[in-house]
Amino acid sequence: MSYLNPYSRLQTIHSAQEILELAQNRSYKLSMKSSLRLPRLERTRIREIARVQEFAKQVKSRLRDAVEGFPTLEKLHPFYYELTDLIVGVDKLKQALGAVYNSTRPIENIADRHIAQLKTATDIREMKRARRAAKGRISSIVRATAGNLDLMIEARRVLVRLPGVNTTIPTIVCAGFPNVGKSTLVRAVSTAEPEIAYYPFTTKEVIVGHLTVGNQTIQIVDTPGILDRPMSQRNEIEKKAIAAVKYLANVILFMLDASETCGWTFEEQMNLYSEVKRSFPLTPTVIVLNKVDITPSDHLAVARAKLPGAFEIVASSGTGVAELMQEALSEVDLEESTPTSSPD
User: What is d(CA 182, CA 224) in angstroms, rounded to the nearest whole number?
Assistant: First the structure.
């Protein structure tokens, strides 16, 4: 469901040099067959006017298309707005979009001014000088905004890869250390094959699944690289990327592996759980003990003592999953799906 990403339809954005080359090629490929019977001076006049018009049109349309392809930033859902701000900076992107769009305004005036000269020119050399001058001035405008185009190109490269998450339906977010069984759970409860998508500032990918309860679709998200290690090990940008999740999570499933086959001690997992609770104090959190079928009885007894009421499941076989999801869904207000969390 990548189409849910508001940037998914962004078309290729050309660099300043590419725009000028494309415009130049198009302006020189114009057919002037209808003017073949005219005197050479008039044929040249018609050709040079057409070249200036086409060059200006191509440049202007490519610059405006690059800008208008972006969604209105103020209308983005907060999740995508926050990620945009992290990736490129909303203010920087707005400035670049505005500068590129504004650069198109004088292009038509330049073209009109030189076309007027072409209409009154009395010799071929004067016409060619006017055409070269028009293209030169328009090219200068494009080159002056090259840096803004480069910023837009780089922003698009990352933004089109953002996960396509539905920001209008309730969302369950899975948290916990790697290998505790989060992605297995997402696949177990999803009614279709989950989508795997890129998430910025991590080396892993987000897994987005969906399930249907009555007439309501619920989204369940595994966020590898997001809520899976202590905050002390993260830089400021990573912390902000985590904060963006607050705009999605209606309920958090925090999964622990008491068998410790995930590679993390139970104490380390409990410390991470405490951090997640502190970071999302207003978001309902359901505690899950996974892999209980392979957990030694003494380990399981310790986990039960520390986490009374935790749901015990075996995600790989589905044991206990139905009861877990019933509890998770009871924490989701299907009438009002706006997350209430506000991370520290």
Answer: 9
